[in-house]
Amino acid sequence: MQAWQVHRNGEPGEVMRLDDVARPVPGEGQVLLKVRAANINFPDVLMCRGQYQVRPPLPFTPGVEICGETEDGRRVVANPALPHGGFAEYAVADAAAVLPAPESLDDAEAAALHIGYQTGWFGLHRRAHLEAGETLLVHAAAGGVGSAAVQLGKAVGAKVIGVVGGADKAVVARELGCDVVVDRRAEDVVAAVKEATGGRGVDVVYDPVGGEAYTQSAKVVAFEGRIVVVGFASGSIPSPGLNHALVKNYSIMGLHWGLYNTKDPKLVLRCHEQLTELAARGAIKPLVSERVPLSGAAAAVQRVADGVTTGRVTVVPSLETSERRAAV
User: Fold this and answer.
1) Are 5 and 61 in contact (CB under 8 A)?
2) Closest CA to 98 of 32, 3, 47, 28
3) CB within 8 A of 182, min separation 6: which ones?
4) Mean pLDDT value across residues 210-224
5) pTM higher than 0.90 for the full model?
């Protein structure tokens, strides 16, 4: 089969190589899955660079989130067991963590429902307890993680302020349902958020960016507000001023979704059931901005690394076959 492999660490576009490899053999408690769609996540970028907390042995195949097909024909959502990741024709996954793919979503959308939406659900509901009528600020609102948080915030009845980088991304954020959109490249984020909230600030901040975004968050979070830290896409890990959190009376919450798979997997299943229900009634729908064939995976991962994409970019191996047929 064909699979993208990383033989050395570096930028995805430079170190990912499409190889012919043996089909992976499932270990005890694992299942073999035919990859129907593999969603690109920022951790894939970090793993290529050797900067992620999980460092699979070289060579490895990246791709941490897929919609796959079991040997008996069931369509499922899963996190592949590295080093046999999802940017390949086949992957393996732990059988206990395989979830049914929502019938209301196509393969690419189903693949994109998992990590970003699970992270959003746990961050906004389990950690921050976002309620209807509250104001939610989402950084990188047009991105894969941010777009999920925007939709989940709107689904619960919150007012959503989205921060984006660029006019094109501002259009996407508005289409996603943001009540207020702030373009950090053209506006003062702190001033714009304070104006939008009448000076009060926001109840919940959802921050997958870190760096300057976190600094802005601390300035606009309201009394008894909650800042949920879910990642550092900026590459800069902030050092919170705990004295500031004390005098302003707000909470800083970390969210590492992967821990729930080992600490409380039943919550992951319950979350998936709720996400499936929300998708079925149209309250949420993953924004898949690009569907690329397997041969285009490395370039697509590099675009995610460069921050030039919106929503989710998804690798769909069957597109390769379709393009070959069209070329004949």
Assistant:
1) yes
2) 32
3) 161, 162, 163, 164, 189, 192, 193, 196
4) 96
5) yes
